[in-house]
Write a structure and sequence with these properties.
Length: 427
């Protein structure tokens, strides 16, 4: 008997009741057969596919039960119902760029990236766009930027390949989360989510939104699975409201808090934002089918200022003052990242553009300014440089202004150094 035919124990921690894999055992052969009969997309339980999906960008490896690559949203719902009936756990996967093993587990992995990447038309009036979870972050911004001059703010360093579903899963922040914080809804993905269409593990499908406090009793009164879930969330919120208020740091104190469950989003003063509460839960509460994103002004004419420091803590010390200049991007490089990339022969010519690379523990801040015109963007960058030199006493040789990306400058190349840091450091 092969592994795919065995009855496999569902690995449930005895300390917890319920959960996605609450039954004692499930039959993999029966599960596979049911999925193959009902799903229009790809159902892969072969050894090669399981090996392929056993890893992501982290150091973890966990062989899945099998893989489903849905072609439609109905496929996703069907997969949930079948897995629920068999007592099999589920794991939603985007591009597999996670660093902490979020996209590998002993579960039926659902890969949204191959087929479910539709991006709707941006709505200028509401400044929103609806997309499927497999849509690539950068593709969303290219479309919305072209259509209405607005973008989805949080863009991780993997923006060229990470998916919106992944952003929602781990509540991503990124290079331009500062832009989204200063010019848009907020720095985190949760701040930029207006609504989610979700499916529960037992296959119930419905939309959840933000600002639903005023409609809460009506939603609960309407009954159904959504009403039941909202009633339980309300009761949970009311029972622990004071602990939530005192235990969660405010957005003003900690703008980029992305860890854990966003229970504070359920508070009455926050509006009972179920959609935003689900952001960052890594699919442990529900699976996302569609995302309605709030957008931020694109400010596509961009100029980059590189500022060198003797050490990384020196750079960090000056960040609060620099934020007052309202940049759209603010990221750090340190000597270790540069050494790793140099050793691997990555971005060698771009690294040479950095000012003062001879200090043993150098660090750099990448301060990017954006505007609707190149002149405005470059003027702000020059005034910022003058402030650093004349008011703060910085040495001119430690500061480099790159021309606007839209005018053929090199700032996009230096962002590649920052974005390449993840891979080079890991290797």
């Amino acid at each position: 008997m092969t592994v795919s035919e065995e009855t496999i124990p569902a690995r449930v921690d005895p300390r917890y009741r319920g959960g996605m894999a609450s039954t004692a055992t499930f039959n993999v052969r029966s599960l596979r057969t049911a999925l193959e009969r009902a799903v229009d997309g790809e159902v892969r339980f072969d050894t090669q596919s399981k090996a392929l999906y056993a890893t992501d960008a982290s150091n973890y490896r966990q062989v899945p039960i099998g893989v489903v690559i849905p072609k439609t949203l109905d496929d996703v719902v069907t997969t949930h119902r079948i897995c629920h009936d068999h007592g099999a756990p589920i794991l939603a996967r985007g591009a597999g760029t996670s660093l902490s093993g979020e996209t590998v587990n002993f579960a039926v992995v659902i890969d949204f990236s191959k087929y479910l990447h539709e991006i709707g038309d941006a709505d200028r009036e509401s400044e929103t766009v609806v997309c499927q979870p497999g849509a690539i972050n950068e593709h969303v911004n290219e479309k919305t930027g072209e259509q209405i001059g607005m973008i989805f703010g949080p863009d991780p360093s993997t923006h060229s390949r990470c998916t919106i579903g992944g952003n929602v899963g781990n509540n991503s922040c990124g290079i331009h989360s500062v832009q989204s914080q200063l010019y848009g809804p907020g720095p985190r993905t949760s701040d930029n989510v207006e609504a989610l269409e979700i499916v529960t593990h037992d296959g119930e499908r419905f939309w959840v939104g933000s600002g639903e406090e005023d409609e809460l009793e009506n939603i609960i009164g309407a009954g159904g699975r959504k009403g039941e879930i909202y009633a339980r969330l309300r009761d949970l919120r009311d029972r622990y409201a004071e602990q939530i208020r005192t235990g969660f740091r405010s957005a003003e104190e900690l703008p980029r808090r992305v860890s854990g469950y966003n229970l504070d989003e359920l508070l009455p003063e926050r509006g009972f934002n179920v959609a935003r509460a689900l952001v960052g839960t890594e699919g442990t509460c529900a699976t996302v089918l569609q995302v309605k994103l709030k957008l931020t002004p694109a400010m596509l004419k961009r100029t980059l200022v590189i500022v060198e420091y003797d050490e990384l803590p020196d750079a960090a010390e000056h960040v609060p003052e620099i934020i007052d200049w309202k940049p759209i991007g603010l990221e750090a490089l340190d000597h270790r990242l540069i050494e790793n990339q140099t050793e691997l022969g990555k971005h060698v010519s771009e690294i040479e553009e950095l000012p003062r690379r001879d200090a043993p523990h150098s660090a750099w801040l990448m301060v990017q300014f954006g505007a609707d015109t190149a002149h405005e963007s470059e003027d702000t960058a020059k005034r910022f440089r003058d402030w650093l030199v004349q008011e703060k006493g910085y040495q001119p040789g430690r500061i480099e202004i790159m021309l606007s990306q839209q005018e053929g400058g090199h700032s996009s190349d230096l962002w590649q150094v920052r974005e390449g840091g993840l891979g080079s450091t890991a290797f």
